[in-house]
Amino acid sequence: MKFMKIGTKPDTFYTEEATRTVISDIPSDLTIRINNVCFLLHKIPLVPKCGLLQRLCSDADDSDIVTIDLHDVPGGEDAFELCAKFCYGITINLGAHNFVPAFCAAKFLRMTESIEKGNFVLKLEAFFNSCILEGWKDSIVALQTTIKLPEWSENLGIIRRCIDSIVEKILTPTSKVSWSYTYTRPGYIKKQHQSVPKDWWTEDVSDLDIDLFRCIITAVRSTYIPPPQLIGEALHVYACRWLPDTTKSRPLHSSGSQTEESREKSRRILEAIVSMIPSDRGSVSIGFLLKLLSIANYLGASPVTKTELIRKAGLQFEEATLNDMLFPSQLPTDQHFYDIDLVAAVLESYLVLWRRQSPLPTENSHMVRSIRKIGKLIDSYLQVVARDVNMPISKLVSLAEALPDVAREDHDGLYKAINIYLKEHPDVSKADKKRMCRMLDCQKLSPEVRAHAVKNERLPLRTVVQVLFFDQESGSRSTTHKPESITRARQAPIEAEAKEECDKKVQHEGTKSSSRVTETSEREIQKRMEAKMVRGDSEKGKERKGETNSTAKMMEPKQVFQRRSSR
Fold first, then answer.
1. Is the torsion defined by CA of 54, 56, 58, 62 positive or negative?
2. Contact criterion met (CB below 8 Å) for 51 and 114
3. What is the share, in percent, of the chain residues with pLDDT greater than 90?
4. What would the pLDDT profile of 105-161 be if each residue is shown by its tens digit?
5. Which stretches make up the NPH3 domain (predicted)?
6. What is the model's pLDDT at position 332?
7. Which three-class secondary structure state does DSSP give residue 511?
8. Where along the chain do the CATH 3.30.710.10 domains lie?
9. Given the DSSP bridges, would you call strands 3-6 and 92-95 parallel, antiparallel or unpaired?
10. How many CA atoms, within 13 angstroms, populate the side-chain half-sphere of residue 85?
11. DSSP bridge partners of 31
């Protein structure tokens, strides 16, 4: 940062309440009132350097005390004081932080060369051209200060010239970047990197107001075609700088006017960022899009903004990881922690696009691989949110059922999610248990999971029966080469008998009370079924043994005949 010192005299201004005075032996003959502050000054030396004061004091005698109201001076009393100190020759320090109000006030007071040589405006213009516009951070700081005087800054060309200077430096090849810049990415150490990163400028421009930041991004994109990822990184840095973080915990909602004003500012920033996201896929990460969507829910952003974020996130949902999806719910009415509705909305957007692109997917197509990747991701997400003790079962089932059948190559992940939910919610009704387990396809469970399910006391009896039947059927296929129809025919009596006994037990318990079968009865039925399965295997073993013996008996005469022939 560069500074300019003007004047040599010590500061003799002092303030007493709302009055600012210069220590002098000469009595004050010029009173300047600005807002609620009163300046007690002298015509000499102010009037000779200020064309406006010359005009306003033209009708007064030299001995008269003149009072002038300058309530509309740009920059207010502080900017006027800088101009007054320049007239007195008092030392002042100028930099990028106070250049804009000083320059606008000097222009307002007409402290130009036509009034007096070497006047304030000339010195300020020289400082602006040689120092501020030549510096990287000076240009940004000066541009940011224009938000307090937008009309004056625009009319005097300060905004345009600062933006041009900043954009010019952004477009400079990284090998020629020699000025100081801010870059605080985690793990990045400047001393260990010889080359300048391509996004070296993103953190410094994130200090700007959103409207000025938009001007910079627009100017960069209109001057040349930058990589979309570079623009996306600038948007990401700006969002992290100004938007609330909704990833850690649920923000506290407040009705205070100051909080609401802050939320309105954040909404404006969010909507501006979303509108600047490049249309190129991958310009920003899916994690960033989901984060913006969570912030939009918290801030109550417009439906247009939310819809656009959901659409963009759906296009890149395949790239998401589990951590990208773990956001707390932002609705104060939700008792559950995780924002499962956000994931459901993005999944729905993804499925709309998937069905449009792949009406009849083949087994090895990219779209099948894509949907199966999403299936594993959703099942992993369900396993996490199932631990939420306040998670409604309807939301869990709705998200699980949203996936098409082809999305799950196996149901192991879904089974784990159901088991976790039943473990964390021991009071769930049997009707809800059946509702959850109805989603399971026992044929898509691995042997290890089936073995666990058979012993799982949390599952409904009907689900355990289905697992046992399929496990028995799979075992039969692996130990015999007989047609499947024979296997099913042999299992039919066992299955019918087991089901009949189960139904009788249910009916018997129903006459006693309106409640369902107790867990003890279910376990008894399960044990009986397992015993029947064992007897079924035993009978099949005997049959196979009998077939072997009969074959041996048929072979025996032939062997005797062969021995006899050899003799």
1. negative
2. yes
3. 68
4. 999 999 999 999 999 999 999 999 999 999 999 999 999 999 999 999 999 999 999
5. 199-474
6. 76
7. helix
8. 3-152
9. antiparallel
10. 23
11. 40, 67
